[in-house]
Every structure is written in structure tokens, then in C-alpha cells.
Write the C-alpha cells for this entry.
Amino acid sequence: MIEVILLERIERLGTMGQTVKVRPGYARNYLLPQKKALRATKENLELFDKQRAELEAKNAAKRVEAEKLAEKLDGLKVVIIRQASEMGMLYGSVTARDVADAAQDAKHAIDRLMVQIDTPIKTLGLFPVKVKLHPEVAIKVTVNVARSPEEAIIQAQKGAAVLKAAEAAAIAEAEKSMIENIGTETPDTEAGAE
């Protein structure tokens, strides 16, 4: 474990100025190159103490800026057009880059590193996605994944994925026949058991 001084708030790790122990790979590959932390040496502790007020002022200014942007982007909905199967399963998945690109097409400044998709989006429908504008400011963006712009409009009005009426009827019929078959099936123990 390596001790580092956090230069900003890191979710599930700590706040600015806190000294925490992290795994060496996490420190080397993420925290230190991204300038989110410093190694906790005596010199760096003294340097951080001298610059603490300046860093806190910069962080506060960035947070205020992010809060203004959050108010502007509150309730943002983006549409992503993808090919999908008859059952609504995507050929591939929607990534953070896709969400960021769709937001930028709608003239909103969202970077792919800000987008946090908890579970992969692999079906048609409406999905809430977390966008971190600042380590202390996050918003929810609704991602509307559809086959066409017309379908996206219908999904937005309906609030759920649109499957063709014939597909929905076929699914309902298949479920109904499965339920009926469960009650009528008998074990085939008597006929041809030997």
C-alpha cells in the first residue's frame, strides 16, 4: 500500500487534503498521472499545506461553475440510434463515449470521462445515466436508445421501449402457451420406459 495526499475529492476514497493508503497500481496508473493525488512524503505534505488555500479556492470556483452547468443540464435527454433485434436487443452496447457524443451533438459540453454507466446498456429503452461534472456535482441524464428518431419520440412519450405490436403479441402468446403447457405436461414414465 502507498500513502497519497488527495488533491480533490475522490468518491469512496476521501476528501481533499486527506492522506489515504491505496494500492500501488491505482496510485501509479490513475491518481498520480491524473494529478488527483501526491505521494505522501514530508516534502509533499509541506508543499500541500502551503498551497492548500489556493487549491481549495480553485476547487470552490470549479464547483460553482459545475453547479451552474448542472442547473442548465438538469433533465437533459439524449437520443442514441442503434440497430437492434426484433426483441429489442442491441447489436453491441451503448458506451460512455456514445452518450458524450450524443450530448455534444445536442450542443452540451460533456466529456466521455464524465459519464458513468453502471451496467452496460444492451437493449432499447430509456436509461438514467450519471454524469459527474465535478467530483462533488453529479446529474442524471436520460439516454433514449431507439432504432429510429420516430421510435425515440414514441419511447419518450410512452416511457418504455417500443416493440412492434406483432412482436408484443407474439411474446404474450408464447408466454401464455408456456403457462398452459406447464399445467398439462405429465412425465413420460409409463410409455416406452424400457
User: Anything to note?
Assistant: Residues 189-194 have pLDDT under 50 and may be disordered.
